[in-house]
Specification:
There is one protein chain. This protein is an alpha/beta fold. The chain folds into 4 domains: about 5-130, Response regulator (Rossmann fold), CATH 3.40.50.2300; about 165-315, Rossmann fold, CATH 3.40.50.300; about 335-390, Helicase, Ruva Protein, domain 3, CATH 1.10.8; about 400-465, Orthogonal Bundle (Arc Repressor Mutant, subunit A), CATH 1.10.10. It is about 45% helix and about 15% strand. The strands form 6 sheets. It has a 5-stranded parallel beta sheet, sandwiched between helices. The chain has a 5-stranded parallel beta sheet with strand order 7-10-13-6-14. The protein has a two-stranded antiparallel sheet with strand order 8-9. β17 and β18 (about 410-415) form a beta hairpin. The chain is elongated, with a radius of gyration of 34 Å. It starts with a strand and ends with a helix.
């Protein structure tokens, strides 16, 4: 249950409260003055403090302030005589959780304690999930060391370090790029790295709702605005007040709403559907699209003025195919993530599997890579993922070829399988020429059209790096 501290100078009342709360399983201690109560709170770190406002020595409000100064996480419930409710109200302004009037009803005491503890549990859960969200959406979660990703991260760091995003007229941001490039992750990274990190982050996919519901979802509605509007409802703009709203797939927003969104950006005011009063909001708007908005403007599907207002700050997310070695980093991350999530002992990818990843075009970008490796982790039957576990189509064009050498030797090349390194092929050709020339280096060099020194150098270099080969 909970650790409860009672600070009450009436010994009989304190004892009755302690016995009542102990019966429900709480660990209860008592103090007869504000000073003694502060010492007890320092020693035992209570979850709840039941505090009389009128105490000998320092009074209850001073105890509240001192607990806060010391960084106590306890929820405080103040107790006061019926005629001094104003004092309890003042205590609420100081941050206490609830109050009780004397004479106390022990059943009401139990209800208040249960309510305070339930609120603490909810607050703790909320803080846990908020902390996890912040960690998973930090700049460090943007995996990649390629020049395009370094440029993206540097741009975000520069923007969040300015006071621009915290201003009442925070400039909008537009994220562009192909499907699956991580626009949602970048939007969250901007929010949680910026000055609005402690306020809400609200995500709306503009294609996820029927057109006639998007306006009510964004702006809210008043009772009776339409058939199913049985009461007032806050829209997502209001829910995000003080924080960030992320409008995904903005390129598919209905034309009628585009004009209203432009008004919100310009004036930071909204009017609920069916309402007559405008409400002021303070939000940062991030929009994202995989659609070519210039082409959408030319076809009349997107407003030119809204486009130019949104693109004050623009981040283009590169396709995975343009990120080079980031595939290795992302693959390692996803294998570790899914192996841990499912409790599987998958250590990584075999070289041939990694080569298959590099050979794939990735039209679905990082999202496709993530899903591919999630599946591979689940179906692999060994410590390493093999090419056959990836379930990827072979690259376009012929992936296998054979080179016939003298003496019935054949070099099999499989570009998709990762065993077509030029240095390996060169070494095997030189060895085949030497075998044919009965190890006469000069003759082998003439056959290959290179010098004797070149033959020796290439053999020695390869064997130094890889050891002698049979």
């Amino acid at each position: 249950m909970a650790r409860i501290l009672i600070i009450e100078d009436e010994a009989m009342l304190a004892r009755n409260m302690r016995e009542s709360l102990a019966l429900t399983g709480h660990d209860v201690s008592c103090a007869g003055s504000g000073e003694a109560g502060l010492d007890e709170a320092e020693r035992h770190a209570p979850d709840v403090v039941l505090l009389d406002l009128r105490l000998p020595g320092i009074d209850g409000l001073d105890v509240v302030r001192e607990l806060q100064r010391r960084g106590s996480s306890a929820s405080v419930v103040v107790m006061t005589a019926y005629g001094n409710v104003d004092s309890a109200v003042e205590a609420i302004r100081c941050g206490v959780s609830d109050y009780l009037t004397k004479p106390l009803d022990l059943r009401e005491l139990d209800l208040v304690i249960d309510r305070v503890l339930q609120h603490r549990r909810l607050a703790a859960n909320l803080e846990y999930f908020r902390s996890r969200e912040q960690q998973s959406a930090s700049l460090d979660s943007l995996i990649g060391e390629s020049p395009p990703m370094q440029a993206v991260k540097q741009f975000i760091r520069r923007i969040v370090a300015t006071p621009a995003l915290s201003s009442e007229m925070a400039p909008p941001m537009l994220l562009t790029g192909e499907t699956g490039t991580g626009k949602d992750l970048v939007a969250r990274a901007v929010h949680y790295a910026g000055p609005r990190r402690d306020a809400p982050f609200v995500h709306l996919n503009c294609t996820a709702l029927p057109e006639h519901l998007v306006e009510a979802e964004l702006f809210g509605h008043v009772k009776g605005a339409f058939t199913d509007a049985r009461g007032d409802k806050r829209g997502l703009f209001e829910v995000a007040d003080g924080g960030t709203i992320f409008l995904d797939e903005i390129g598919h927003m209905p034309a009628a709403l585009q004009a209203k969104l432009l008004g919100v950006i310009e004036h930071r005011r909204i009017r609920p559907v069916g309402g007559t009063v405008e409400r002021k909001i303070d939000i940062h708007i991030i929009a994202a699209t995989n659609r070519n908005l210039v082409e959408a403007i030319e076809s009349g599907a997107f407003r030119d003025d809204l486009y130019h207002r949104l693109r004050v700050l623009t981040i283009h997310l590169p396709a995975l195919s343009a990120r080079g070695g980031d595939i290795d980093l992302l693959a390692e991350h996803f294998v570790r993530l899914y192996a841990g999530r499912f409790g599987l002992s998958v250590a990584g990818l075999a070289p041939a599997a990694l080569a298959r990843l590099h050979a794939h075009d990735w039209p679905g970008n990082v999202r496709e890579l993530s899903h591919t490796l999630e599946s591979a982790v689940l179906i692999t039957d060994g410590p390493q993922i093999q090419p056959e576990h990836l379930n990827l189509e072979p690259p376009a064009g012929e992936t296998r070829m054979s080179i016939e050498l003298t003496g019935d030797q054949v070099i099999e090349l499989d570009f998709a399988g990762g065993n077509a390194r030029l240095e390996d092929v060169e070494y095997r050709i030189i060895r085949a020429a030497l075998d044919y020339a009965k190890h006469n280096v000069s003759r082998a060099a003439r056959l290959l059209g290179i010098s004797r020194d070149a033959v020796r150098y290439r053999l020695e270099k390869y064997e130094k790096e890889h050891g002698p080969q049979d």
